[in-house]
Amino acid sequence: MMVEAIPIRFYERPPSRSELTDRFGRRLTYLRISITDRCNMRCDYCRPAANAYRAEPYSQILTFEEIERIVRVAAGLGVNKVRITGGEPLVRRCLPSLIEKIKQIPGISDLSMTTNATLLAKHADEIWNAGITRINISLDSLNPLRFRKLPGIDLAPVLEGIGAAMAAGFAPIKLNTVLVRGINDEEVPELIDFAAERNLTVRFIELMPMKHGLDWEKHYISIDEVLEQPEVRHRVDVDAKSETGNTAARYLPLKETKGKVGFITPMSERFCDGCNRLRLTADGHLRSCLPDDDELDLRDMIRNGGSDDDIRAVFARAALIKPEIGVYGLNKQAGQRSMIHIGG
Ligand code: SAM
């Protein structure tokens, strides 16, 4: 997307704490940080096919010290919520040391992580001890064969990881399922039951047309269509008033338990009005909107001696260029980067 030229004086002046507000009055208080573009899964909707995928050389990925410095500056601008994501964050070595560093930054009051859970059985305790108490776990299917086809790995370690997270005490644990027509769209009732039996909340996410992702027109299914399925209506009170929190999800109550189920509708019902997010890619670019490729470089600026004021100025510019509405190219070749590069 083309962004109009920004008068340079605006972004050369470092903002004060209250100034990280975009042109539409949205305060930007949430930073999602991709700490690696490597992943041990091969989700078709997220990344190019294995032989077409090239991870960035390690030298191009932000160091923990660089990430910590960026978060410290962002916190000074009013960012109070950080989510660690990837790629798969648990494939990066020494992750607990980064968590401990971020946890100690004044102003950061909410630190969470998104993971595919394959390595959680091994790392749940150390992640918890380092200071993360709530996590989102991606779970697209409970069918081992289908699971292998979609995320490219066995289901067993994921289920073990979910168990380990529960045993470690993470709360809440949210399960995230990307809906893919023809692959897992018939599995919604089972996933609802799986979550309810464990007192977890599952959220269903509409497929977004990302670069190198699946053929969106073929595989997209709207939440409204899913809510028409008789087995879903049997479980979910679709006539209830949906509850929205401070996230992109809306929730409906389950009929037979006190639980709820979440729906995230980036395609059928956008939620840009309340967007408070910025994204930091693993290779050090600040992105003001998920589908908008107009990224700002922080890594090279920092490595060339940039000051904290320079970092503040980049955040200010990100706020200035954040579009009112995120526009997804419905052609899957739209955009420059796939989800695995951006960080979901
Ligand atoms: N590896 C971690 C995981 O699997 O949760 C974190 C990174 S992953 C990119 C973060 C989230 O983005 C996952 O829930 C994934 O399902 C979602 N995601 C990736 N590509 C997507 C797409 N094209 N549409 C909707 N969600 C997508």
Number of helices: 13
Total of domains = 1
Give the strand order of the largest sheet, numbering strands 1, 2, ... along the chain. 7-8-9-6-5-4-3-2-1-10-11-12
Structure summary, number of beta strands: 12
Please state the overall shape, judged from the principal axes of the Cα atoms.
globular
Secondary structure elements and their pairing?
Layout: H1 8-12, E1 30-34, H2 64-76, E2 81-85, H3 95-103, E3 110-115, H4 120-130, E4 134-138, H5 144-149, H6 156-168, E5 173-179, H7 188-197, E6 201-206, H8 216-219, H9 223-226, H10 230-235, E7 243-244, E8 250-253, E9 260-264, E10 277-280, E11 285-287, E12 296-297, H11 299-303, H12 308-321, H13 339-342
Parallel strand pairs: 1-2, 1-10, 2-3, 3-4, 4-5, 5-6, 6-9
Antiparallel strand pairs: 7-8, 8-9, 10-11, 11-12
Bound molecules: S-adenosylmethionine.
S-adenosylmethionine binds at residues 39, 45-46, 85-86, 88, 114-116, 138, 176, 178, 205, 207-208, 210, 213, 339, 344.
